[in-house]
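Lecture 7 notes: from sequence to structure.
We start with the chain below.
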Amino acid sequence: MECTSDEISCSTDKTNLGEVESVVQSWMIDYYFATLCRHFKARSSPEFHKALKIFEALVDEFESCSHRSDLSSQRTICCLLARVIDGENLDVRYEHMAQITPLMSALPIWESLKESSDTALHDKIKTLLIVQSVAVCVKKGNSQLAKETLQWLEKKTEIPEKLQGKLTTIVSKKEAYDPLLMNLTFNQLLEHIDMFLVAFSLEGSSVFLLEAASKIVQARHERSEKTLSEEDRSERMPSSPESIQSEENEERVDPLVLNMRPKRRLLSKQTHDPWKPETAKKERTTCKRTSICKVSRRSSSPSELQTNVSVTSKTRKKWTAEEDRKLKAGVRKRGEGNWRMILNDFEFNNRTGVNLKDRWRTLKNKGEDF
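Predicted structure tokens for the same chain:
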């Protein structure tokens, strides 16, 4: 549901604008905290650090005037996640001391979150942080840093005696593939922190903005799917009875009709210009006659006149099988005697109605099938 600017201004006039902005900012912090957790689970370090900058800016501005009890916990967890996601990068430093690696600085932060996690899960993650703090240095080939890391861990935290002895052996022998390191891997550390994030989010973190946005996106998808389904239905709808009948009629058309000539127009649609005196003048035309007598001026004798006279007569054209077929189709359609209509329907190569009549009489006399 979308609200207009007028509705928002009316609602904020009835309440304290500062309180409204505080609630909105609180939702934004929760949103970016959930975003950081999502990027951590996706192991996307660049996107994680982009969101972390926004989260820290919001918390710095909001923390002084907020009474939320979980805000400090969210910030502490984000500090832990930042160090763990950079755990295998020994060039990154979160402390002033150069020899403090990201996983070493993550250990005291995790200790401060002891009350926010299950005891068994807390102990497991602590053990993984201790082992991987040393293992990362050994795998990177920095034996001196691994030795300094182990000494720092012995001073800053309590390490079980058996675990301390195994780590000392690994550092001295530089065994990057020791069974202990293979059983307590960096991926296991990430997976156990994922479990902690799920439990923490279920307990107190609000995801109102994500839930509201999810509902809006889902509604948009439903509307788009509904529109597509309506278009599909309109395309799949059967044709109307009239269209079906017209299609059937088109299929039943006699193939002879395809050869029908277009009907003659009784009135011409040609437009003429207004009358002008010049238009009344007759153009000189040459008329052709069927019989032409040509007499040479040089001839004077009757014999020469007889030889120079040439008479051209009109030859009779034979009827083709195609013309006979058209004549039969025309009689079936228009009936015998309607020769003018048949001439309009079919092309007979400049024949007349009398020609059609004579040819029809000839065909009937031959006894052909009609």
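Points to note: Residues 18-214 form a domain with the Serine Threonine Protein Phosphatase 5, Tetratricopeptide repeat fold (CATH 1.25.40.210). The chain has 16 helices and no strands.
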